[in-house]
Specification:
The chain has 496 residues and is an all-alpha fold. It is built from 19 helices and no strands. The two termini are 32 Å apart.
Length: 496
């Protein structure tokens, strides 16, 4: 295996599938829940429950698919064939969810789900509820396949501490580019049409995703080769939970990812209601969200540079503290003021991209620790656990905040809410995310696996692999693992 740095254009080609991934992920949080509540007639509580159940069901498939990704390579490598396999699931489910027909398509597949619900709940859910639940489950199968495989592929493209941040930074660039590109569609529609139907906005997003998925997946898997991995994983699924219990480095990353992920998931799931009703700017909602993601896109180079100077974990903490300070500023902004919210979204948006790419870069370093400890390359399993936390965060955001909206008496209709209700909406929109961001910063502030520790890990892995049959070297590597400690206190000291 060579340690030659990847060229910029290959890294860019690798990042391409992140564009439709994020173009799909953003509407799932921001546009689909309000669409199925406002246009399809489901209650806010029911929509929140369906999205939460679909996410939690998908959580159980993540370790399975992660282990499959590790254990069953093909002649094209360990990851690329799984990415290609995800495309049919994602394309079909996107067509169904973003462009529901009259009558609803594919209901015959979900009749058993209605019968089961009738037996458990005493009544059969509506066809729209069954349709949403069924196609969300299918979508998440494809989502899991592509996200685990793509993140694992990125982690395996380099063994260098800072280059891993650059690769994940490029991936985050593509993710945010996909977000503000798909957001440009409803923003354009809102700009040219006085009264824009939610169905038109959602359908435009759906077609963008469906057309882009095969193009970007094809280019990435064709033009970017995978790096050779020294050892083939023989990992057993039953050991997945043992890793979670014993590896505290992993635990801290997962807890941080959950906390950091809940914050934007809450603001995302409430954003349309926040901008349209609390701030009184329904016509500019998509445009202002686009500004938020452009700011996040622009901030990534600065976070990458800061991580080279201060380390990934400390940079992550700085970004979360910055976000927790800037988000509540909207509480002091006047309603119906485009420019005030423009600047508010810009300042807060700068922090958006930092948490995701830094934690995914840190996870690549944690897999080095596991590699030294076990001799196995289990990147897919580790990133499947990371996708689990992202899904829990998304499920918590919709499953908790939408029932809260019902509880405060919020109604998604113009003129239907009192000033007190809209103020409570603002408190939910700003308060919960700020608390989660501060908690995420606290978890990662003194994370022990820094640049120097990761360099030592790679040196010991290289020595072990070079002298695989030298018992003295292998025993030295085992001693190093003992010294590092699965408690996550590397050398029994925190990083500076």
């Amino acid at each position: 295996m060579t340690d030659t740095p990847l060229s910029r254009w290959r890294v860019a080609m690798f990042a391409l599938p992140s564009i439709p991934i994020s173009a799909l992920g953003l509407p799932i949080v921001v546009y689909l829940p309000p669409f199925y509540a406002e246009e399809m007639g489901l209650s806010l509580t029911l929509v929140g429950t369906i999205f939460m159940i679909a996410r939690f069901w998908d959580i159980f498939t993540d370790p399975i698919l992660g282990v499959l990704s590790d254990r069953f390579p093909s002649r094209w490598g360990r990851r690329r064939h799984w990415i290609v396999l995800s495309a049919p699931f994602l394309i079909l489910s996107s067509l169904m969810l973003f462009m529901p027909s009259e009558p609803l398509t594919g209901m015959w597949m979900f009749s058993w789900l209605g019968d089961l619900s009738a037996q458990i709940l005493g009544q059969r859910p509506s066809d729209v509820a069954l349709y949403l639940m069924g196609w969300m489950v299918i979508l998440y199968i494809g989502w899991t396949l592509i996200t685990i495989s793509h993140m694992s592929w990125g982690a395996e493209l380099s063994t260098d501490y800072d280059e891993r941040s650059a690769i994940q930074g490029w991936r985050e660039f593509a993710l945010i580019f996909g977000m503000f590109t798909v957001l440009a569609l409803p923003a354009i529609i809102e700009g040219v049409q006085e009264h824009t139907a939610g169905r038109d906005r959602v359908a435009a997003m759906g077609w963008f995703i469906v057309l882009l998925l095969p193009i970007t997946i094809g280019l990435a898997t064709w033009l970017v080769p995978e790096r050779a991995v020294e050892k083939k994983s023989s990992f057993e699924l039953s050991k997945a939970w043992k890793i979670l219990v014993s590896n505290r480095l992993l635990q801290r990353v997962l807890v941080a990812d959950l906390l950091v992920g809940v914050a934007p998931a809450i603001t995302g799931s409430l954003y349309i209601f926040f901008a349209s009703y609390a701030m009184g700017l329904p016509k500019y909602a998509s445009l202002l969200l686009l500004i938020y993601f452009i700011a996040g896109f622009a901030g990534i180079p600065a976070w990458i540079r800061l991580s080279e100077l201060s380390g990934k974990h400390r940079t992550l903490a700085y970004a979360m503290i910055y976000g927790a300070i800037t988000l509540p500023l909207v509480l002091f902004m006047p309603r119906e003021s485009f420019w005030w919210l423009f600047f508010g979204n810009t300042f807060y948006g700068i922090a958006y991209g930092a948490g995701s790419f830094l934690l995914r870069s840190i996870m690549a370093d944690v897999t080095d620790y596991d590699n030294l400890e076990t001799g196995e390359q289990r990147t897919g399993l580790y990133y499947s656990l990371l996708t689990m936390t992202a899904k829990v965060a998304s499920a918590m955001a919709v499953g908790i905040t939408y029932p809260l909206l019902d509880w405060i008496g919020f109604v998604p209709e113009p003129g239907a809410n009192s000033p007190e209700t809209l103020q409570h909406l603002l408190y939910i929109y700003t308060g919960f995310p700020a608390l989660f961001m501060v908690a995420g910063a606290a978890v990662m502030w003194n994370f022990p696996l820094d640049r120097e520790q990761q360099r030592l890990l790679r040196e010991k892995i290289a020595a072990r692999d070079l002298h695989a049959h030298d018992e003295h070297v292998v025993s030295d590597a085992a001693a190093a693992v003992t010294q590092l400690g699965s408690a996550g206190t590397i050398y029994d000291r925190p990083a500076d």
